[in-house]
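We recall that each integer encodes one residue's backbone shape. We quote one record:
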Amino acid sequence: MTATSAQRSRRQRNPRGQGERLREDIIEAASRLLEDPASPPLSLRGVARAVGVAATSVYLHFDDVDTLVRAVADRHFSELARTLSEVADGLADPCARVRARAVAYCEFGLASPGQYQIMFSRPLPLRRGEDGVRDQVPGRPAFEQLVEAVAACLDRPPGDVDSRLTATLIWQQLHGTVSLRVSRPLFPWPPIADAVTDAVDRLLAGARAADKAEAR
């Protein structure tokens, strides 16, 4: 019996009505393969072998590799959004929520560099919706949460244009922090929480200073 045959025999067929379970198994297997730098380019047949099912079973859930990669990224973005929401819950100070979310973002990326690479270090296929591509950008809900938190911290209305700019600058800073620490782990970096909090506070202070200058 080949390894693939043995793997298939070990995997029990999902009972009728549990196709969603197989879909999740496929996403999980694809995620592991994408995180492994030694794995060959992702293919639906390769994922099928990893799960222990026939390739036709994978095609029932995903039309092509792009849709599967997008599903993997969507899962990780959902995990990130949930993590960021949880750390901000219970914090009354809106600026404390921004800092907590920023630190949690970096800790998420550093704890799961493989997942982070899937989310941010490779082009992701966009999915058009009724409202256009803009609302279909992967990970947008997590970013919108940051925009809302920044607006509340700066005492601005939700959806404020300047708050969106400040949130974008904060995200750029956080992404750079994760990317540099992953690629240069031996550099004498300061503690992550201290470095992130200081950077975020400086950006928020700059936004407040700009508000005061405009009010003069």
Q: What stands out?
A: DSSP finds ten helices and no strands in the chain. The domain at 73-215 is CATH 1.10.357.10 (Tetracycline Repressor; domain 2).
